[in-house]
Structure formats: C-alpha cells, structure tokens
Request: fold
Amino acid sequence: LRSSSQLLVLLGISNGGLLAYSDSQADVNALVSESAPQDAQKKKVVVLGTGWAGTSFLKDLDISSYDIRVVSPRNYFAFTPLLPSVTCGTVESRSIVEPIRNIIKKKNGVVQFYEAECVKIDAANRRVLCRSNNGPLIGKEDFMLDYDYLVIAIGAEVNTFNTSGVMEYCHFLKEVEDAQRIRRSVIDCFERAVLPDITEQERRSILHFVIVGGGPTGVEFAAELHDFIQEDLVRLYPTVQDLVKITVIQSGEHILNTYDGRISSFAEQKFQRDGIEVKTGCRVVGVSEKEINMKLKSTGEIFSIPYGMVLWSTGIATRPVIRDFMEQIGQSKRLTLATDEWLRVEGCHNAYALGDCATINQRKIMEDILDIFRVADIDNSGTLTVTEFQDVIQDILVRYPQVDLYLKSQHLQNMEDLLKDPQGNERKEVDIEEFKIALAQVDSQMKSLPATAQVAAQQGTYLATCFNHMEQCQTNPEGPRRFRKSGRHRFQPFRYKHFGQFAPLGGEQAAAELPGDWISIGHSTQWLWYSVYASKQVSWRTRVLVVSDWTRRFIFGRDSSRI
Ligand code: FAD
Reply:
C-alpha cells in the first residue's frame, strides 16, 4: 500500500488490521488488502501454493530476513504419492495432509497465510490479485498483495486435451477431494450393481472401472482398485463378484512407458494375470454419460465401451493464471512457463517459478553453451586449442548437470571424437562449427525435468538456500562465470538429483528404478516402498497416521462404508 494513487480506507481493526482500498490501475474496482505488521526493511516475498514446491521452500527458508505471505486455496500440504491409496481407503485422507499453519508455526518468525487463490499476477506492478475461497470478506472477496519477490508454485491442472465429456463425466486424481470422491464412487457402483430389477448387462456396465492413461498414477490406481475389490469388496458383494472389470486405456504401445522396459513389461504381465485389461494404442475421443468412445490408432476404427466409473489420468496442463502471466511477460507462444536454471522466470526476473507450473528452458541452456564457446574463442578464429576445448567442456559440465547426464550417456564420445581428425590422429585445434553439430544431437536428446514431487521439493529447497544467501552472495557471488556480462552469477544453478522412482503394482508387489540403473521388482520392493514413503512424510503426526492406517488395513481390511 505504498502508492499515493491508492485511496486507503482504514476499517479500524488495530493490530494487523484490514485495509480496503480502490486502485485506479487495478482491473477490479475495489480490493481489500491485508496489512499485517510489516517491517519496511524486509523484502516482501509472496509465495503462491502450498504443494511440494511451496512447502519445501517455506520449510527451508530463513524467514528472519523476509516479510512472507503465503497464498493457497488449500490450507494444507498433501502428500500426493499416497493419493491413490486414499481412493480405496488403504490410507485415510487426513493421514496424508499436514496443516500449513503447523508447518509455518515451526518457523522462528511471522509468516502470513491466506486461504485464497491467486487469480492474477500483475507483473508490471509487482503484485498479485487474490480471491478468498471462503466467500465474501467484509463485502469483498478479492485482495491485493505487493511483492519484491514472487515465488510461483501453484502446480498444474489436469489435461483433458479438450476431449468432449471429460470434464462432465470423468473423475480426476489431483487433489484429496478427488480421491475422496473416487472412494465414494467405487462403493456407489457396487451398491447400484446389487439393486434389484436390473439386468446382468447393466450390472456389468456399472462394475466396469475404466482408467484413461497408463502412466504411474493410472497404473497405481488400477492396482489399488484391484486389491480393494479382491481383498475386501468381493466378500461383501459376492453376487456380483464375477461381473467386475477393470480396463486401462493407453494411447502409447505400453503402460508405464517412462519407466525402464523391464518394469513396464512386468506391470503388463502382472495386470494380465490379475485380469486387468490393458488396451494400448487407443485414444479416447469422447465420453458420454454411459460410454467411452475410442479410436484405435492403427486402423482409425472408432468403437465405444460402457462404463460405471472413469478415471482420467493423462497428464497435466498449465493453469489459466499462469497462461495470463505468460502473455504479460512475452511467453505466450510457449506451452509452459519457462525459467532459467536459477528458477527465475524468463522475462520477469523478480519472479521465480518451481514445481509442476514451470519448466527450465533447455533451449536457453544450449544458447548459453554456445556463448561459452564464443567467449572462449578470443581471437574469433572459429577454432579452439585442445586444452581450451577441454576447459570449455569442463565449464559446461560444471554449469549444466543436465547436459552432463546426456553427454555422459550418449554424446561425450562424440565430443572426444572431435579431438581427433577423420584419420584418428590427435588434432591441434577444434572447429567450433563441428562442435555445434554435435551439440545439435545433444539438444534433441535433452528433456525437461519430469513433473514429480521429487523435482518440486528439490527446487523448493534450492530456492530457499538462494534466498538465505541472497545478501551474502550479492557481494560474494558463488555461481559460475557469466558469459554475456562480466563477473559471476550469484548462485550455483539448480541441480536435480534423481533418487529413483517407484511403481506400486498391487498384491504387495512394487517395481522401482533406483539410482545407478538398478531395477528392483517384487514383494521386497513393496517393503522398500513402505519404508521410503513413511520416511518421506512431512511430520511425525502424518508418519504415525500413515503407518497405523497400513497396519489397520493389514488386520481389518479396508472400510467400505460410503461416507
Ligand atoms: P502441487 O503439489 O500440485 O501444489 C500446488 C499448490 O498450489 C497447491 O497447494 C494448490 O492448492 C496451490 N494452488 C493452485 N492454484 C493456485 C492459485 N491460483 N493460487 C495459489 N495457489 C494455488 N511425484 C513423485 O515424485 N512421486 C510420486 O509417487 C508421485 N505420485 C503422484 C500421485 C498422484 C495421484 C499425483 C496427482 C501426483 C503424483 N506425483 C508424484 C507428482 C507430484 O505430486 C507433483 O509433481 C507435485 O505435487 C508438484 O508439486 P507442486 O508444488 O509443483 O504442485
């Protein structure tokens, strides 16, 4: 509330009072802005989102140097990897959430939390427009927050690919409420299927559970549902047990296609043994109240199947508020919000974006690498001596671990080849143009980081460390040399460390890709999964709740009440 153009109306609540003001520049006529005690010396940081990225940023941030406001439509952190377990009651929904106020209470200082949604980022004026999701707030439900730094961690929304009927008839699995709805819907289907006066064909349709998308979430849900039905529901609904069917529809040739081939084929074989049908090479073209329409990719044939419940789990898309922000900062042609390797939003460097809502712009990294070469080529000859070339490669590998991964796995050999002429003799110098050709191959191999909790949490921790060293690094930069400007970057760029990934496949079996190209599949992997997921809980409270839910399920089975 610093601008003189703002008309302030004090509502008279003394400590941390509420101020209402109208602002000619804002696109809303009257806004409410919270003014908790502010330290004018401190930079204002607004954090959007309380998911993996936002929460890990907050947990690691030294809040004594900043005035922090957190905005999120949900006042808790949810441990998303256990959402599929919530859909079938293996774990209760409250066991996987931690109130955000518990997390910020542990910080030594004041962090303001507002349960609201950011509806607009006003990049030019450095402020965000937020809307309370608790209904009108003293006649207004909107308020503005100014920021010096904006941390955008609002995740992504489901991607329907504009397929007709998906929004109306399909379930999604992104939020805790989604998992609760699915749980009720599964039980609903069983209760409907045992009602009198319906045909067997209708019962079969009602008990047909379809999962669109054979990625990790879809596969895990299919496995959970299969266990729930076989271990608990068939005993309670014995008359319809032979009519139940689970189908997974996948547009690619295999399910779990981002995993090692051994895991994907193990999952397919296991599903076949369990009677879960996997339809590959099929694209869903529409969903109606009772049927799913699909197109077989190989022949173009269109056919439909009846269903009782559908889960749509085909990937993520950018949220509207981010798309609007992208337009403001000249990123409208991109599909996702781009940042550099320091997680600064391209075109808006006082804003940072992390987690599922952004991707690190790989193209820019490639441009930077070419810059490194240009700068190293002091005499503009288009060539480098072998020693210079090796130095440059070292520099690239230090700065860009992502490149390292790909160079090491497939292309470093090509670069070393550049040090030899076609006859295999050692060269005295290296042609930069030739390097560019090798680089183009690397470029085509570079992938964005996956949209996972692992990436989001590491980015949150990384950014908190940068914020904690902000002042110190201003005078004592610790990052690599800058090539377009003189001096060094303040911080090291973000480096992702991959700790592997799991795929629970039901029947107390799981598959895991572990660091160092290790693959582990079977019952022991499931126990590894239990230990890792228990240890990764954000608090002792949720850890105890989750472990006791697992124990309860082992002893008593899952609860099938429809509440
Ligand atoms: P999120 O965790 O989605 O958090 C976004 C936050 O922003 C939320 O608090 C939301 O309420 C808030 N928000 C939304 N809109 C606004 C707005 N307009 N203004 C302010 N706040 C807003 N990853 C793994 O690594 N391993 C797994 O096993 C795994 N399993 C998964 C299972 C499921 C069912 C799902 C859905 C995801 C799974 N993931 C897993 C992926 C992982 O959950 C995401 O990659 C991760 O949540 C991304 O973190 P984030 O902070 O970017 O977004």
